[in-house]
Each structure stands twice: as C-alpha cells, then as structure tokens.
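can u pls check wat happens w/ glutathione
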Amino acid sequence: MKLYYWPKTRAFRALWMLEETGAPYELAHVNIRAGEQDTTNFHQVNPMCKLPALDDDGVQVAESGAVLLYLADRFPAAMLGAPVGDPLRGRFLQWLFFTPGCLEPAMAEKMTGASGNSFSFGWGNLERVKAAIDQALGEGDWLLGERFSAADLLLASTLQIAFVAKLLDPAGRIGEYVERAMAREAHSRAVAVEQREIGALKSAR
Ligand SMILES: N[C@@H](CCC(=O)N[C@@H](CS)C(=O)NCC(=O)O)C(=O)O
C-alpha cells in the first residue's frame, strides 16, 4: 500500500487511517509546495493533482472520503466502516460525505468572508453544519453511537483545523469529541510519523 503524502496536508487523514488499520504501507513523497503534484505521473494517479492519494497494488484512489472508505472496506477486521447490509451503513456514508461536502466548504466560506445562500448551497452554512454535528454527537461518543469509524476520523481531523483557524469554538461536546479522537493510539502513531517526516525535511535543507 502506497500513500502519496506530504506533511501538514490532508494526507494526514489517510496516514492516521492506515495506522488505524495496522496495514503495512509506504509513503511516496509529493512535495506540493515545490509543485511536484503537477507531473504527468501524478496526473495519472489523481487528475486533480492533490493529496491524499493511494495506490494499492495498482488500484488507485484519491479524495479523502473515498480513500478512507476504500481502506475501511479493504480492511474490514479493523471495524472502521459499516459493511453493505449493516444498518449503520447509511449513517456511516452520510457522515463520511458530510465532512468534505458540507463542513469543508462551510469553513472555506467563513474563512474567506464570502456570504452565500444557505438554502441553495449544498453545505448550508457553518452554523447549520455545527448544529448537525452537535445533534449527532448527542447520541453517543461517536457518529455511529458507540463505535469509532472512518467518518469520525475525517470529521475530527477537520474540526481540529477549524478550531485552530478559530472558525469554530472547541467548547463543550464538540471539543470533547475531537479530544477523544486525538487520544487514540493510532492518532499518536500517525503524529509521530508526521513529526519524523517534518524532522527529515528540516535536516535535508
Ligand atoms: N478534496 C480533496 C482536497 C485535497 C487537497 O486540497 N489537498 C491539498 C493539500 S491539503 C493539495 O494537495 N493541494 C495541492 C494543490 O492543490 O496543488 C480531498 O479531500 O482529498
């Protein structure tokens, strides 16, 4: 399993997910700050020329949500998804699509000061997104209730960015949720890999 990766990017989500699965993987560096994503080879992997992307013995997949869903299905023993036929499958897919489809655009809108039409725009606005998350977290520790899934990984890692960017207030249930996710051992392992990569970059300069 090869993860196209660069530190301090959305590739961290896929790195964390790989650590959750326990599957062996290697990192293929794509220095997006130096424009390495704009090569013909990487265009074949992801025509959007963005990270993360994955190559599983020739099976290529990009887009964070798709990468996480692919890994959840590929490693069912890790119990990070909900298989077809599982009653939780619907909610799992809903929340997996929610982060890139609603939370991220609403964050971008807030960050740029753009004001949109919350009725017509698919993501509503950040207030609606926040209320939806609050409601979902009222029923258990995780989006699916008692079990952590890839949907939590994607949501919690994006909320963390929203907190740092001061787009959302980490107080209360939502902040506790992110802390719970960050307390997972696989998250700590992924952070250690990321720190190692950042260190290696600094010493190569
Ligand atoms: N929708 C994509 C967004 C990925 C994305 O924007 N990645 C950034 C890094 S955080 C990137 O690769 N940027 C390089 C570029 O746009 O050239 C996903 O969720 O995977």
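The beta strands are 2-5, 26-29, 53-56, 59-62.
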